[in-house]
TrEMBL record:
SUPFAM superfamilies, per the entry: lambda repressor-like DNA-binding domains (SSF47413), Periplasmic binding protein-like I (SSF53822)
Organism per entry: Nocardioides flavescens
Entries under InterPro entries matching the protein: HTH_LacI, LacI/GalR-like_sensor, Lambda_DNA-bd_dom_sf, Peripla_BP_I
Record keyword Membrane present: no
GO molecular function: DNA-binding transcription factor activity; transcription cis-regulatory region binding
Keywords: DNA-binding, Transcription, Transcription regulation
Domain named HTH lacI-type: residues: 1-53
Gene3D superfamilies attached to this UniProt entry: 3.40.50.2300, lambda repressor-like DNA-binding domains
Record PROSITE patterns: HTH_LACI_1, HTH_LACI_2
Name of the protein described by the UniProt record: LacI family DNA-binding transcriptional regulator
Keyword DNA-binding: yes
Length: 329
């Protein structure tokens, strides 16, 4: 800044005002200072500016894993909103109970960010209590945690929509595929979609026993592993409700590999609205993931601007494609 001031023939204070676009500097002087700053490749230090403003200009986004499409889509939708508000995004991956516990014990985002965006993060009750120690705004994307501001779909309604679609087609033996990667923690979407499967079947007077609920550890083949178990039952299901589209893709691939026709022999529906679903013709309940990510980032921007925000519920949409049909017999 001293170099810019010397070359422009003005004070350091004038350079500061010109580069920050505050009043008190004539337009010719402002233009001359900016031209010289560009020639010297000078930029204002964000950290120094943050110190003077009393905040960091950063948002911490916490995800359980980065390789899943859902989290990548969320991050991709959040980034441009935060960038437009001159906020930097810090990403923390907390896969598994050990990493999650360490993050919440050490609270690395407390001094590094003005807000924390929890993205579909399973938490135990003890971990939820530690969120009060963050010292920053907390917003939840893709689910709900206590009374923190959130953006989510109604997962109970989404699950009921999926299962009801299968029942309306005439299926009476309907199974569910899910992953058991929450390490004893609770994630509202998992709880509600599983409850939707059970209650919708029971309300219809149908079997919702545990043998029809296949829970597998997370992985690209989780859907295949779960379906293999279901097909080994004395009375296999004729339809499957998958917690996510990625589980559905894997299950469909396994069904075809073992000689089953989809949907003639087995109907499969997922939840998400994964873009590959259109290409693969997969029936899904679209939860508009990118909309959820964008709206959650907008909540953060509003909070940091000093405004009040309200929870947002994004409506889920049934998209019927080629992987669901009435049972063959």
């Amino acid at each position: 800044m001293a170099d810019v001031a010397r070359l422009a023939g003005v004070s350091i204070a004038t350079v500061s005002r010109a580069l920050r676009d505050v009043p008190g500097v004539s337009q010719p002087t402002r233009d001359r200072v900016r031209d010289i700053a560009r020639e010297l490749s000078y930029v204002i230090s964000p950290e120094a500016s943050a110190l003077s403003r009393g905040h960091t200009g950063r948002v911490a986004v916490v995800v359980p894993r980065l390789e899943a499409w859902f989290y990548g889509a969320m991050l991709g939708a959040m980034a441009p909103v935060l960038r437009a508000a001159d906020l930097d995004m810090l990403v923390y991956e907390t896969e598994g109970e050990q990493e999650r516990t360490r993050f919440l014990r050490e609270l690395p985002a407390r001094r590094k960010a003005d807000a924390v965006l929890l993205t579909a993060l399973p938490l135990s009750q003890t971990e939820v209590a530690r969120l009060d120690l963050m010292g920053a705004h907390v917003v939840v994307a893709g689910g709900t945690v206590r009374d923190f501001p959130h953006v989510a779909v109604d997962d109970l309604a989404a699950g009921r929509t999926a299962v009801r679609h299968l029942l309306d087609l005439g299926h009476r033996r309907v199974a569910m595929l899910r992953t058991n990667d929450t390490d004893g923690a609770v994630w509202s979407a998992d709880v509600q979609r599983t409850e939707a499967w059970r209650t919708t079947l029971r309300d219809a007077g149908l079997d919702a026993s545990d043998e029809l609920l296949a829970s597998e550890s997370y992985g690209v083949d989780a859907g295949a592993r779960g379906l293999a178990r279901l097909l080994a039952l004395p009375e296999p299901p004729t339809a499957v409700f998958a917690y996510s589209d990625e589980l559905a893709f894997s299950a469909i691939a396994h069904a075809r590999r073992v000689g089953l026709r989809v949907p003639e022999d087995l109907s499969v529906i997922g939840v998400d609205g994964h873009p590959l679903g259109e290409t693969l013709g997969t029936t899904t309940v679209d939860q508009h993931v990118t909309d959820q990510g964008r709206l959650a980032a907008e909540l953060v921007v509003g909070l940091l601007a000093g405004g009040t925000v309200a929870d947002v519920e994004v409506p889920a949409t049934l998209v019927v494609r080629d992987t669901t049909a009435p049972p063959a017999h």
